[in-house]
């Protein structure tokens, strides 16, 4: 009999580019995700049949990093299996049929959901479901970093693996489940895919943590999470320098995340939207992850500017995730959602704006 497993996609609520610097984040699993029907086989081979994609297989006798596989689903399967083996966990072959409700380009972290799904399958079929979700998240991150070639932090994988709304402080390892219900506040949350491609953005993404680490090194620290914010401010660095601006974003965003968590916990939608707008402006003006000269793509910028016109004084909007292309996250009173959706889809196409429900 085949086993059925669900893994949610995730939405980033706060903490834009803070996770890789031992910062704080607020994120949530959502009601969209990946569904798998799977069963063991005795061949030491993992076979994946994903709806709409060519099937592939990974031989478990070959679990070394393969640069020629960077960026592929096969690399994630190989990486998760290798990490399970490195941890002394049981690894074996299986056949899985995957179906996704995560729209292409939705910004809901399909690669993290996929790698977490492989970990969940191995956990369920071969490890009696005993592997902790945080361990599965770290395994998935390792697969993305080493085998997929993506220098990401842990936020996406952790939100997908835990499956609900969480506040995380990566410096203290605090993980706090949060009861989050925008509907009870009279608000609706959505993402708009602006249609920009992530192709050619690897260097732009990698430069963000590199810039932050450069500043941390000025204080003899490895990451900004280990730098005293007051000591940084006392240095009086010039915001004309990109690494300094990005460090300024980190410290401001890191202070903002627990405030957004607290607003969620007390159901204060007005305070949450004010802080969400602050987060968005910080990403635009200090982090500078909206437009990059690597591609010259301005669709994300257009989406943010249009959101500002449609929601000024009525809601909140911010870049969602890595940036430079992709999605605008917006939150607004329920009565404004239909007009916002109509306005965004008039520019970015039918179906580009989707409401999100947090798990």
Sheet/helix structural class: alpha+beta
Please identify the top-level CATH class of the largest domain.
Answer: Alpha Beta
The first-to-last residue Cα distance is: 28 Å
For this structure, the CATH topology of the largest domain is Ribosomal Protein S5, domain 2
Describe the structure in your own words:
The chain has 10 helices and 11 strands. It is an alpha+beta fold. The strands form 2 sheets. Strands 1, 2, 3, 4, 5, 6 and 7 form a 7-stranded mixed sheet that branches. Helix 3 packs antiparallel against helix 4.
Can I get a quick summary?
This protein is of the alpha+beta class and 359 residues long.
Task: Offer a few descriptive terms.
359 residues; alpha+beta; Ribosomal Protein S5, domain 2; 21% strand; 7-stranded mixed beta sheet; Alpha-Beta Plaits; 2 domains; globular
Secondary-structure blueprint of this entry?
Blueprint: E1 3-14, E2 24-40, E3 45-50, E4 56-59, H1 73-86, E5 94-100, H2 110-126, H3 133-148, H4 155-162, E6 166-169, E7 174-177, E8 187-193, H5 202-217, H6 229-234, H7 242-265, H8 269-287, H9 299-311, E9 316-320, E10 327-333, H10 337-348, E11 353-356
Parallel strand pairs: 3-5
Antiparallel strand pairs: 1-2, 2-5, 2-6, 3-4, 6-7, 8-10, 8-11, 9-10
